[in-house]
Write a structure and sequence with these properties.
It is a single chain. The N and C termini lie close together (6 Å). By secondary structure, the protein is of the alpha+beta class. The chain has a single domain, classed as 4'-phosphopantetheinyl transferase domain (Ribosomal Protein L22, Chain A). The chain contains four helices and five strands; from the N terminus they run βαααββαββ.
């Protein structure tokens, strides 16, 4: 596998709190999958968890070079934790099609938080010519 792209994003918690306050269910349903929302609801710092997922989705769109436009839906990207707690990426819909066109086989994601911010870094991996 070889690295083909990188994306990074920083989100402040008040921005997410404001969007939830202003748009409520409309915002939550448009941006987050049911699994992402359940994960946030199960944690005492739910807004922190949502901000991390939002930053991760932005980082992924940056590495694809698309941003959020066209037929892309926020829920085309899902960030869920595996059994050991590591976040993993699942793509579907338009984002999955774009990833396939770019030769992306896997996206590795890292999310961290401070008192007021979430940051996510995403690395796109493609099959190398050697078939590794």
């Amino acid at each position: 596998m070889e690295i083909v792209a990188h994306g990074i994003d920083l989100v402040d918690f008040p921005r997410i709190e404001e969007m939830i306050g202003r748009h409520g269910e409309r915002f939550l349903g448009r941006v987050f999958t049911a699994s992402e929302r359940a994960y946030a609801d199960a944690n005492k710092n739910g807004v922190e968890k949502l901000a991390g997922r939002f930053a991760a989705k932005e980082a992924i769109l940056k590495l694809m070079g698309t941003g959020w436009r066209g037929k892309i839906a926020w829920t085309d990207i899902e960030i869920v934790n595996n059994e050991s707690g590591q976040p993993e990426v699942t793509l579907c819909g338009e984002v999955e099609k774009i990833a396939a066109k770019l030769g992306i086989k896997h996206i590795s994601i890292s999310i961290t938080h401070t008192a007021n911010f979430a940051i996510a870094s995403a690395v796109a991996l493609a099959q190398s010519d050697e078939g590794e």
